[in-house]
Design goal:
By secondary structure, the protein is mostly helical. The protein contains 5 helices and no strands.
Length: about 120
């Protein structure tokens, strides 16, 4: 067997993992955008940084595991696992973020309400 075909299975697994982890970068970026209340400038900057980070991860993995050879199947595997993560685990993580964010807002509103009651009672 040729050397190039010997490591294709391990290369497949490594690029699957790298693509999946790159999808997690976008999950973290979406959470940060959610905290910024989806304002346009921070959203654009965060999307840009996440995209650059994913490209750097891909090229680092390509350089480290594929010896710098640009081939179609590692790119296809990387983006397929990236998209798979975004449509499976990414949706679950987004729902968890939303629940946590709503609970924190309710807690914050209760604290503000109690503080406002205390101030109005002191004025009376």
């Amino acid at each position: 067997m040729l050397f190039e075909t010997l490591n294709q299975t391990s290369l497949l697994v490594k690029f699957l993992v790298l693509g999946f982890l790159s999808g997690l970068f976008f999950d973290v970026g979406n959470f940060i955008k959610f905290l910024f209340a989806n304002k346009k400038l921070p959203c654009v900057i965060i999307d840009f940084l996440c995209t650059i980070l994913c490209l750097l991860v891909y090229f680092w993995g390509n350089l480290k595991f594929n010896y710098g050879q640009l081939r179609f199947y590692p790119l296809l595997i990387f983006f397929t696992s990236f998209i798979f993560e975004r449509f499976t685990l990414g949706k679950i993580i987004a729902k968890i973020y939303l629940v946590c964010y709503n609970q924190l807002n309710k807690l914050k509103n209760k604290i503000k309400e109690k503080l406002n009651r205390g101030k109005t009672n002191k004025k009376s």
